[in-house]
Amino acid sequence: MKKKQYSLVGLFIVALLFNIAFIFNVNVFADTLSSNYQPVIDNVNKTADSVELRWHVSDDDYYYFNIYRATSKDGDYQLLSQSYFPYYTDYNFSAGVHYFYKIETVYFDENDDLQTSEAIFVEDVFTPLAVPTLKTATAVKSHGIALSWNGTNDSQGYEVYRSTTSNGSYSLIKTVKTTSFDYYMAPYSYTNKKLTVGKTYYYKIRAYVTYDNVKYYSNFSTVKYAQVRTDSAKITTTYSKKPKTNTLYWKKISDGNGYVIYYSTKYNGKYKKLATLKGNNKLHYTHKKVKNGKAYYYKVYSYKTVSGKMLLSVEPGYYEKYCNYYSFENEPYDSRIQRLFGNSKTAWYKTSKIANKNMKTVRIKVWDRTTGGKKYTRHFYVTVNKGLAPSVKKMFKEIYKTKERFPIHDIGCYNWRGNGSASEHCIGTAFDINSNENYMIDNGQILAGSFWKPKKSKYSIPLKCPLVKILNKYGFERGFWGNRKDYMHFSYLGT
Questions:
Q1: CA-CA distance, 413 to 288, in Å (whole number)?
Q2: Coil, helix or strand for 28?
Q3: Among 151, 281, 361, 485, which residue's beta carbon has the most beta carbons within 10 A?
């Protein structure tokens, strides 16, 4: 009985060993099959907005591949795609974000059951955000500092940081977002206002993108800095109250200690210092020895004394001012109207009564000829627009002093010619000189005067002569209008 019992036990052990061997071989086969389908990464090609993954497997009898992505190695991997090919391009890829991928193969086993291989991991695929270039930090009005920088086309916005020392602690002060309209535009700008005058501030910026409500950043830009300054003075009014002068008036800068005035003869030329005025209540300055009819360009800085040194204000805009005590050639139209009527809204007198109140009679000295041809001095009393009276006296004084000594035997200016008349004689801005010998014609037909013969008549005014040159110098043009030519007529407004 014992021998038979041992035989049964032996059979049981042999069967158990056989089953163990079978199971072991099956597991080894399964592991070998799975490893044949495990992906092997061949290449990772990344750009600022995409990443291409390529891989291979030993056994090409696969079904498809699962591609997953997370933003950390141990994060939540989300299925991106199922690909039937051993490559995939992720176009929803943003520079500045760290990505982690895993790829697994789906295949059929020997029983035609779907199986999944072990995953292969692609760790930390990353393209850094481009660093924005902080170009300038400039002191501007309202106690501000204006920043400008070049944008980058892979960011969604920028963060601006500020410190009071170069290597100190920087704090976030502004976030500037891009939009669909300015995503690719540059430069960007931001003005930090209401700062302390005399204090220096330091700035740096960085770009960012947002993915799954998390911000990812570029490196910081280089640091730019600027010192806060007072506002510049704004010129409000200018006058030429006396010959060869320009007087400027400007608004008070309450936190300044004074003003510095500069000028140039070109708006973009080199500016020279005229004067430094101590005290912020000095709000005007007269520039002397300037040339009539010439444009001058002015800038008025305020300044503040900081640590014993003069700190000029922010850069002022220029102000153009002609020396216009006397009328002049090429004088702007609005300047002429202002001279005549005292404002820019009025351009004519409605009645003779109003016109008469705005006229002034001046005494001028001219040359004339006797019947024998000898030149002699005579005087005329001419009524002109009171705004032109100083210019007219100056103009005829120069005419009298010329070597030409052009003879004038009759001259007229103001003459009210009716409420509907458009003649400049109605506003005292036109001269008729030697009206008989300098006719007005239209298409060859004589409308006024008798003739114009400058080579024969000493009273006929040539096209070019010192008399004409000086009249032009003070802004009076001859009455030539196409086919109509008025040789006696010289007007201030050109009509």
A1: 32
A2: helix
A3: 151
Torsion, Cα 212 218 224 225, to 10 degrees, reads 40
Beta-strand runs (E) in 84-185: 87-90, 99-108, 114-116, 120-125, 133-140, 144-150, 157-163, 171-177
Q: How far apart are CA 172 and CA 351, in angstroms?
A: 68
Residue 332 has pLDDT above 80, yes or no: yes
Report whether 125 contacts 99 (CB < 8 A). yes
Structure tokens given for 437: 């010998």
For the domain covering 36-125, report its CATH number: 2.60.40.10
**What φ, ψ does residue 49 adopt, rounded to 5°?**
-130, 15
Query: Is the four-CA dihedral 82, 85, 86, 87 of positive or negative sign?
Result: negative
**In CATH, what number does 235-322 get?**
2.60.40.10
Read off the tokens for 218.
């570029």
pTM for this predicted structure: 0.74
CB 146 within 8 A of CB 140: yes
Beta bridge partners of 211: 214
Class of domain 133-227: mainly beta
Task: Report the half-sphere exposure of 461 (CA within 13 A, side-chain side).
Answer: 28
Burial of 158 by CB count in 10 Å (0-12 exposed, 13-18 middle, 19+ buried)? buried
Q: Residue 158: which residues within 8 A CB-CB, separation 6 or more? A: 132, 149, 151, 175, 176, 188, 205, 206, 207, 208
d(CA 277, CA 456): 61
CA distance 146 to 119: 53
Alpha-carbon distance of 231 to 251, in angstroms, equals: 11
**235-322 matches 36-125 in CATH topology:** yes
pLDDT digits (tens, 9 = 90+) for 235-252: 999 999 999 999 999 999
Query: In terms of Cα–Cα distance, which of 272, 329, 319, 268 is closest to 296?
Result: 319
Q: Per-residue pLDDT averaged across 57-76, rounded?
A: 93
**Taking a C-beta distance cutoff of 8 angstroms, is the pair 297, 319 a contact?**
yes
Task: Check if the beta carbon of residue 449 is closer than 8 Å to that of residue 434.
Answer: no
